[in-house]
Amino acid sequence: MNTYYLKANTEAELQNALIAAELCIEHEEESPTFYGNCGDFILDWIGEIFEPTGVILDEGLETERPEMASVGGYHCNIYSESDLPASLAALLVTPEPTTPARKLAGT
Fold this sequence. Notes:
This protein is mainly beta. The chain has one helix and six strands, in the order E-H-E-E-E-E-E. It has a four-stranded antiparallel beta sheet. Strands 4-5 form a two-stranded antiparallel ribbon. The protein is elongated and about 50 Å long. The model has no long low-confidence stretch (mean pLDDT 84).
């Protein structure tokens, strides 16, 4: 199974690219669905990815938590035995992440 890691600058850019490639599960103007099976493709909508900054926040509640910051952009993973639609090639993360934030079990 092929894994394609996609990243766009904005949520709208990623949504529009998936809709144009006909990889939107359901397309209703108000709430398109970008997670699940779509023909030969499995879509895993991730959205923003956050990572710890190294700073620990003390919120005065007797607990501490790591400060998190966005790595930038909006993300989606696509899994398929088929080739990625050519229109999505510009959104491919290259090189592929060596430690992806999320991946399909068994891949």
